[in-house]
């Protein structure tokens, strides 16, 4: 691996450079908070400083007041805010979550309002109104009303189904149960009924329903262990601890019901790791911080019972504040389709205006002098032309396809069900099927350029596994299956395959091996729970848990600990060791140590950590041998793997071949993220890696050059398109959140608080200030654009130690400056903002709750299903939608423009070329089913070939199947078809006589002939465009033609004319015309001339210029035979070959050493006050009374 920097470079010495180990600030942080610098100081001084800072902050910002067990307190006038003119509502949000849009009362008006905001629907509403004016209409009103009602009805039903699903999801969460104090006792209540100020009780494995202040728990010193996977993606437990005063007095139900404390704290915000407040109780004030707050979305672990006071509820909770705004997502094809509809509007107006001018001229030249055309109205030619303009707007209205939008929605709905029903995307271990949670984005799945992925739980299983070890220079790795049956403490989960190592441990001939596992069992801060008769370990990080569990399986079992001792079973012999000190892990030390006194009195230090810090502390006969953590003897090394999900490297490889770039955005440490990059093959040994400090210099140089070229204007990047790197090569960018803020000029700076005399500023000073701000904004925009350009030149990008807001910002930058289609995938609440920002959001139903899934557009159980979602469903959906739209525009132009050609022979009088009922049913019945089935079922190649040849996906990324060029080709095709459909029957009817002496060359017979030719031609054209033939497709094409003739004969019968004489005027036309042989010859000739050129062109194209899809389809039988004998090739990643160092201790969290050393974490029997204080008891009580 070529690296562009020394991996050991740190920035602690230079405070002006970002620290890779720190998570950047949240967007809601104030400038004062950002200026607080950590310092090493005595504990009491730190506490005093924090209390003073808290008081200072409270005076300025703590306007949020919460009174325990007093709901009336929060309804006081000072806590009311005005909503909807004069209506007032409490500023304290309820705990119910609402994501639905409608209720039974608002559904109909709101849904109709939303539908008529669509230009096409509103246009047809106006058209319906115009058709009620007899002076301008030549079409019956039902020709527009019936299709419009059908469109509105189908769309309303789909919206109703979607909203019912949202109602169910909301109800599932809002109706969860929780114990709440009511009338001085705990009763069971629903989450939605919880209010700010309520005191609640939670049990083990319960989710926290709101942001609460921890009052007490069943653990010593009211500790509470929580899993924050839904908040930050980490599954290792964190501990919270209540105030001593609440731990002491608020254990019993009666005391909790009488609790009347007042909390003054900051307003609701999105800072997950910050909280400032004060508890006022019994005349005293107690400082509060984030360690005493349980956030909504956390899960209670290893704690039987805990009690809390609700501080923030519902929309005010931090997890909801981090979820971001729900954005309306529209596909690229949607936007393009809307522009095309606007183009058709313009064409319709121009054509109608031209024909109206033609009618005005015709009236002046011919109409006024033709007495037999007089209608009894003395209108001027200009006024008649004006009326005809609106008449042609009505006649040619089908140029704007009324059923287009509803047909698109039906196709998308069907494609969504295909995703839901795909058994190859079903994850059996968790009974998780794939789910399309939206029905509006399917074809966009076939156009993705960039994928932004979370790491923990998305690429990985978040399960650490002990893979191998090296002891005294000998490596022990998989050889044969190991037998742990001899060990009564073995958990049965370790899959270590080296029986030789186990035999050596049993024999005890090599003390280094036993010493190695003894160290793993001793040197840690893991806590053990033996309450259910089994050993359950709770570690501060998964990797430390994996090491202790490995030692347990190899016979060195950590059993228990106290404040000063640790008990271990060594190959069945239980021994207890005195612990003199624990030097805990942190991001600077990258190691931890334990100092023990052995039974023989010897004092030893055991240390484990990252190889980079251990190597430099090994014994080299130096004079510092007696110094702590110096001159260490090396026992061995371990290899721990955070297991990738199945199929992750293969999925990433396939997506890369489809020209999709994958960026990993994670909150984990840089080294951890980098190692996962190698594991999933985003990075290889040949990859040149660039870090934040490398690209910062490149970007600064580029920005200076751009400024020099254009003076002081930094917005001239459009002419500066040179690459940052030479072409070729495999490059990757790894950048931390701190560097990201630094590079993108997002870093907040504290304003200097200087005493300044304020004088009125002149206009010139104001202009200078505005100009300075403008330049700063231009610099920032240019820097962000340059960063995106540089990052996109890399094959892969990994952003680590980033906040949820930064994840969303990175996605937004790529959307804004690259105009690329983006997809974000994650499994935790910290991914919600990113999921909502991307064009498409995918949630994984994993270890971290359902928050990401609820905010996503699509969800499934494993990352590997993403390749099928994109390469199969996405590509098929895109191809089907493009084919549908091209054909839909074609058939409407072919249908409508026959009226245009007919106008030249009827004095531009806005007369229709077809029967009214044919116009009504053309898009509804006669030509709708074949194109709908192609939009639902068509596929150019099979799903297996789609995955085997990812390059097929590139068509969608480049918009090659539907664009303005394709639109105008469809328009031209429709114009030519309409010419043939009109002029061939016109020529055949010009001078014709029937066999029986009748002359069927009347207007009605012509209309039937043209309509019959059109129906057969457009349905056969759909057959030519079909790639995947099934019985259903064939039935739809021939069935539509048969349906047309059946309905036409019924509508032209004398019986229906007798019942409705004014609505059915083509009595006997179809039976009379279609029994003439030359009419059928005319129809056949028209259809042949329409289709034969298309067939010839398709043949030449597939023969001379075949697409990749054509080539694969031609050889599909060969590929199918190969698949039967094909076996999966070995992975490029070869374990044990890379010389890279392990990631252990880089992802490691700070442990529980402080709690262990203080004894607060150790469960013990409560002693009496007399036993503890002895003779000082009376003195202590007097001091308490005096205070």
UniProtKB/TrEMBL annotation:
SUPFAM superfamilies (UniProt xref): Calcium ATPase, transduction domain A, Calcium ATPase, transmembrane domain M, HAD-like, Metal cation-transporting ATPase, ATP-binding domain N
Disordered as annotated region, ranges: 1-44
Pfam family, one: PhoLip_ATPase_N
PROSITE patterns in the cross-refs: ATPASE_E1_E2 (PS00154)
Membrane topology classification: Multi-pass membrane protein
Positions of the P-type ATPase N-terminal domain: 75-145
Active-site residues (renumbered): 454 (4-aspartylphosphate intermediate)
Binding site residues for Mg(2+): 454, 456, 827, 831
GO cellular component: membrane
GO molecular function annotation: ATP binding; ATP hydrolysis activity; ATPase-coupled intramembrane lipid transporter activity; magnesium ion binding
Cofactor(s) for this UniProt protein: Mg(2+)
Keywords from the named record: ATP-binding, Coiled coil, Magnesium, Membrane, Metal-binding, Nucleotide-binding, Translocase, Transmembrane, Transmembrane helix
Homology family: Belongs to the cation transport ATPase (P-type) (TC 3.A.3) family. Type IV subfamily.
Name used for this protein in its record: Phospholipid-transporting ATPase
Organism lineage: Eukaryota, Metazoa, Chordata, Craniata, Vertebrata
């Amino acid at each position: 691996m070529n690296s562009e920097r020394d991996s050991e470079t740190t920035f602690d010495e230079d405070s002006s450079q970002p620290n890779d180990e720190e998570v950047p600030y949240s967007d809601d942080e104030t400038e004062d908070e950002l200026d607080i610098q950590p310092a090493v100081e005595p504990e009491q001084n730190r506490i005093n400083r924090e209390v003073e800072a808290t008081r200072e902050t409270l005076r300025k910002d703590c306007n949020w007041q919460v009174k325990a067990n007093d709901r009336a307190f929060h309804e006081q006038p000072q806590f009311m805010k005005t909503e909807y003119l004069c209506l007032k509502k409490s500023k304290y949000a309820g705990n119910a979550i609402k994501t639905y849009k409608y209720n039974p009362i608002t559904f109909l008006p709101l849904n109709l309002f939303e539908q008529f905001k669509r230009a096409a629907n509103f246009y047809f509403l106006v058209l319906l109104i115009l058709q009620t004016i007899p002076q301008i209409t030549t079409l019956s009103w039902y020709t527009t009303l019936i299709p419009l009602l059908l469109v509105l009805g189908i769309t309303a039903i789909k919206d109703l189904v979607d909203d019912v699903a949202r109602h169910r999801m909301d109800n599932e969460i809002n109706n969860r149960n929780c114990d709440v104090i009511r009338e001085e006792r705990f009763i069971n209540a629903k989450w939605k009924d919880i209010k700010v100020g309520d005191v609640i009780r939670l049990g083990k494995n319960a989710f926290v329903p709101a942001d609460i202040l921890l009052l007490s728990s069943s653990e010593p010193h009211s500790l509470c262990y929580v899993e924050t996977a839904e908040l930050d993606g980490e599954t290792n437990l964190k501990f919270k601890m209540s105030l001593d005063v609440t731990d002491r007095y608020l254990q019993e139900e009666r005391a909790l019901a009488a609790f009347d404390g007042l909390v003054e704290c900051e307003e609701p915000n999105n800072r997950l790791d910050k909280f400032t407040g004060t508890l006022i109780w019994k005349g005293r004030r107690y400082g509060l911080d984030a360690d005493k707050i349980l956030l909504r979305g956390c899960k209670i672990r290893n704690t039987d019972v805990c009690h809390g006071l609700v501080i923030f509820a519902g929309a005010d909770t931090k997890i909801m504040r981090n979820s971001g705004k729900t954005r309306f997502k529209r596909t690229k094809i949607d936007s393009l389709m809307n522009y095309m509809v606007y183009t058709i509007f313009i064409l319709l107006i121009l054509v109608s205006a031209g024909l109206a001018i033609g009618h005005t001229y015709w009236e002046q030249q011919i109409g006024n002098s033709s007495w037999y055309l007089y209608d009894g109205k003395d209108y001027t030619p200009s006024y008649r032309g004006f009326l005809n303009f609106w008449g042609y707007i009505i006649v040619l209205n089908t140029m704007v396809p009324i059923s287009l939008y509803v047909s698109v929605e039906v196709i998308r709905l069907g494609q969504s069900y295909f995703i839901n029903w795909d058994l190859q995307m079903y994850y059996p271990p968790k009974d998780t099927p794939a789910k399309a949670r939206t029905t509006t984005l399917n074809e966009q799945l076939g156009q993705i350029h960039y994928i932004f992925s979370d790491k923990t739980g998305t690429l990985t299983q978040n399960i650490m596994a002990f893979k191998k070890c090296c002891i005294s220079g000998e490596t022990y790795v998989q050889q044969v299956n190991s037998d742990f049956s001899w060990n009564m403490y073995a958990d049965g989960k370790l899959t270590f395959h080296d029986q030789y190592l186990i035999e050596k441990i049993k024999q005890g001939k090599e003390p280094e091996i036993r010493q190695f596992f003894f160290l793993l069992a001793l040197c840690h801060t893991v806590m053990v729970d033996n309450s259910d008769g089994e050993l359950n370990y709770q570690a501060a990080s998964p990797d430390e848990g994996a090491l202790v569990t490995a030692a347990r399986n190899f016979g060195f079992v950590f059993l228990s600990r106290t404040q000063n001792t640790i008990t271990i079973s060594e190959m069945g012999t239980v021994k207890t060791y005195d612990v003199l000190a624990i030097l805990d892990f942190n991001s600077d030390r990258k190691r931890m140590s334990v100092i023990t006194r052995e039974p023989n009195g010897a004092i030893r230090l055991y240390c484990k950590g990252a190889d980079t810090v251990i190597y430099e502390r090994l014994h080299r006969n130096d004079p510092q041998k007696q110094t702590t953590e110096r001159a260490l003897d090396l026992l061995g090394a371990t290899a721990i793997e955070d297991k990738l999900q199945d199929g992750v490297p293969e999925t990433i490889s396939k997506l890369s071949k489809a020209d999709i770039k994958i960026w990993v955005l994670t909150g984990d440490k840089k080294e951890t993220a980098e190692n996962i990059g190698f594991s999933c093959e985003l990075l290889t040994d040949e990859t040149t890696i660039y870090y934040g400090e490398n690209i910062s210099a490149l970007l600064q140089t580029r920005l200076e050059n751009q400024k020099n070229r254009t003076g002081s204007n930094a917005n001239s990047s459009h002419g500066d398109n040179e690459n940052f790197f030479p072409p070729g090569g495999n490059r990757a960018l790894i950048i931390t959140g701190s560097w990201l803020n630094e590079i993108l000029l997002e870093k907040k700076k504290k304003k200097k608080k200087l005493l300044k005399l304020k004088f009125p500023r002149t206009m010139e000073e104001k202009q200078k200030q505005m100009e300075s701000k403008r330049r700063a904004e231009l610099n920032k925009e240019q820097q962000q654009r340059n960063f995106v350009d540089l990052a996109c030149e890399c094959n892969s990008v990994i952003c680590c130690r980033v906040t949820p807001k930064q994840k969303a910002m990175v996605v937004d930058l790529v959307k804004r400056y690259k105009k690329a289609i983006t997809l974000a995938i994650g499994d935790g609440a910290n991914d919600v903002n990113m999921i909502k920002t991307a064009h498409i959001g995918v949630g994984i139903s994993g270890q971290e709750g359902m928050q990401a899934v609820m905010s996503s557009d699509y969800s499934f159980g494993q990352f590997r299903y993403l390749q099928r979602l994109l390469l199969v469903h996405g590509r098929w959906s895109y191809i089907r939608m493009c084919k549908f739209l091209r054909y839909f525009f074609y058939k409407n132009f072919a249908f409508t423009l026959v009226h245009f050609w007919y106008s030249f022979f009827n004095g531009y009088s806005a007369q229709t070329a077809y029967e009214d009922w044919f116009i009504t049913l053309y898009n509804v019945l006669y030509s709708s089913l074949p194109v709908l089935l192609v939009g639902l079922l068509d596929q150019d190649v099979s799903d297996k070939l789609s995955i085997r040849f990812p390059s097929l996906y590139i068509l969608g990324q480049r918009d090659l199947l539907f664009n303005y060029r394709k639109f105008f080709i469809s328009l031209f095709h429709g114009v030519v078809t309409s010419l043939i459909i009109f002029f061939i029957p016109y020529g055949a009817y010009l001078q014709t006589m029937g066999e029986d002496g009748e002359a069927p060359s009347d207007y009605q017979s012509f209309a039937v002939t043209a309509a019959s030719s059109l129906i057969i031609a457009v349905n056969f054209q759909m057959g030519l465009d079909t790639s995947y033939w099934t019985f259903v497709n064939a039935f739809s094409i021939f069935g539509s033609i048969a349906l047309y003739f059946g309905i036409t004969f019924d509508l032209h019968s004398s019986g229906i004319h007798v019942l409705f004489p004014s609505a059915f005027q083509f009595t006997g036309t179809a039976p009379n015309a279609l029994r003439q042989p030359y009419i059928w010859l005319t129809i056949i000739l028209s259809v042949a001339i329409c289709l034969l050129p298309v067939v010839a062109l398709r043949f030449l194209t597939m023969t001379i210029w075949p697409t990749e899809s054509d080539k694969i389809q031609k050889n599909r039988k060969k590929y199918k035979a190969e698949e039967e004998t094909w076996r999966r090739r070995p992975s490029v990643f070869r374990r044990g070959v890379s010389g890279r160092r392990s990631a252990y201790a880089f992802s490691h969290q700070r442990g529980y050493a402080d709690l262990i050393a203080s004894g607060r974490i150790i469960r013990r029997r409560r002693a009496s006050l007399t036993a503890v204080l002895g003779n000082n008891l009376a003195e202590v009580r007097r001091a308490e009374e005096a205070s």
